Structures are given as structure tokens and as C-alpha cells.
């Protein structure tokens, strides 16, 4: 395999839900991949600040696909950004807030700040836990920059709300992004990976990617070597023939 780039989702894939820090051999693997000319890309709905902290020991070996493809960082510089039309972002935020039965809290993502409309239901604690830059707001009109992603945090879980929001906001790549999150953005992880390959001159056939949820599908569908986690939903395990319990198990074979 002539792998040039390895992209991995974070929460539920490389970092198990509830864990705060990466453990085990992954840092050694990322360094070893870099020494072989293979770049590593954390591909996440998280913002750059959070990802940069997690991967600090190997940040110089990485390119960061942040906000589900809305922002891309390399060498501490934003090298690509895909903002949403302001009117659309505000309309989605209003809909997610008003039609979540008082159970939803909203996060609007800028280039490297999370703007929070919160109800005291746990989103703020989660944002502090993952280490995002954040600012609490009352209305999206307060946001002084481009919006790249709009998300709803549902503290009782997404099951009762996926059918309500995902089809309605299909135009904004609405997707379940974890047990408690639904995301919308005009970018997606697939668009982000395509942008990286265009910037760096890589072929998508030479990209390996790992994911565990529906917001990873756009990435897994376009790369030459897609892997789904063993713990992913049944339809995703059926869609992708290559399964693994952990990315590290597969990466050993590249070293």
C-alpha cells in the first residue's frame, strides 16, 4: 500500500467516549509514520485548540481537520476554511434550539471559538472537558466571525431527535456525530480530506481513514482504505468490509 495520509476520527474511534487523553502507542505510531513520509490527520468535529492539546507531543507530524471539515490547520496556521452562509447558520441554530423540546443546547463554531447557547443541561461542562475556547451568547447575531458549524447537544441522547433534524437539514450535511450531538455544516469530513489532498498533492486512493459514526461516512466513502470501528452501528459495519477494534491495530502494519 502506498499510503500518504492517515485520517482518523477522534471520539469513539481513537479516543473512547468519556476519555480525556490519548493513551498507549498512538504517539509513537504517528512519529514513526511521519518518519516514513506518512502524514497523520485527526479528523474531528472538535475545534483546533482541543485537537492541538490532545496531539501536542506530535503536532508537528499532523495536519488537523477540525469542525468536521469546516477548518483545516497545519503548522499552527489555518490553511482552509469553509464557512456557512450566515442566514442559513442562524436559521439552523434557531430551529435546533426551538424544536428540541427544551432538551437541546446549541454550539456555533467559528474558526477557533465555540459560541454556546446553553440551558444548563451539560453542554458547557462537556466543552470545558474537551478544552475548547468558548463564549456564552444569547443569540447568534452576537458572533463576530464566520460560522463554520452549528451543532445541537442533546443531554438525553440523539435517538429521539435524529429523524426530526437530519432530513430537515440535509442541505447542511446534518448528521449524528455521537451519542449526544447532531452537527450541521456545509463542509464535511470528505470535503476536508479532499481539500487536504488538493493542497498537499496526495491521491485519495493513497489515504487510509478510520471512523465510527455517520458523520465519518463522507470521509470513508472517498478514500482508498476505509476502516470502520467494531463498535459502530450495524448499518455502518455492513457498509464497510474492513473493521477494526482500534486504529492502532491497523497502523502497526504500516510501520
UniProtKB/TrEMBL annotation:
PROSITE patterns: COF_2 (PS01229). SUPFAM superfamilies: HAD-like. This is HAD family phosphatase. It comes from Waltera intestinalis. One of its GO terms (molecular function) is magnesium ion binding. One of its GO terms (cellular component) is cytosol.
Amino acid at each position: 500500500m502506498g499510503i500518504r495520509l492517515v485520517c482518523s476520527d477522534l471520539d469513539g474511534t481513537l479516543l473512547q467516549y468519556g476519555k480525556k487523553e490519548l493513551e498507549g502507542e498512538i504517539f509513537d505510531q504517528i512519529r514513526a509514520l511521519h518518519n516514513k513520509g506518512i502524514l497523520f490527520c485527526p479528523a474531528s468535529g472538535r475545534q483546533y485548540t482541543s485537537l492541538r492539546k490532545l496531539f501536542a507531543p506530535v503536532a508537528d507530524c499532523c495536519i488537523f481537520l477540525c469542525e468536521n471539515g469546516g477548518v483545516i490547520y497545519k503548522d499552527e496556521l489555518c490553511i482552509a476554511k469553509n464557512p456557512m452562509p450566515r442566514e442559513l447558520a442562524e436559521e439552523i441554530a434557531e430551529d435546533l434550539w426551538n424544536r428540541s423540546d427544551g432538551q437541546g443546547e446549541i454550539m456555533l463554531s467559528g474558526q477557533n471559538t465555540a459560541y454556546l447557547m446553553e440551558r444548563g443541561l451539560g453542554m458547557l461542562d462537556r466543552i470545558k472537558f474537551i478544552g475548547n475556547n468558548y463564549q456564552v451568547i444569547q443569540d447568534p447575531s452576537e458572533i463576530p466571525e464566520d460560522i463554520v458549524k452549528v451543532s445541537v447537544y442533546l443531554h438525553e441522547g440523539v435517538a429521539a431527535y435524529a429523524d426530526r433534524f437530519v432530513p430537515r437539514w440535509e442541505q447542511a450535511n446534518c448528521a449524528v456525530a455521537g451519542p449526544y450531538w447532531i452537527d450541521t455544516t456545509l463542509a464535511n469530513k470528505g470535503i476536508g480530506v479532499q481539500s487536504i489532498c488538493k493542497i498537499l498533492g496526495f491521491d485519495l486512493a493513497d489515504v487510509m481513514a478510520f471512523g465510527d459514526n455517520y458523520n465519518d461516512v463522507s470521509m470513508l466513502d472517498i478514500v482508498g482504505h476505509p476502516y470502520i470501528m467494531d463498535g459502530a452501528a450495524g448499518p455502518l459495519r455492513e457498509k464497510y468490509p474492513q473493521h477494526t477494534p482500534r486504529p492502532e491495530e491497523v497502523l502497526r502494519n504500516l510501520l
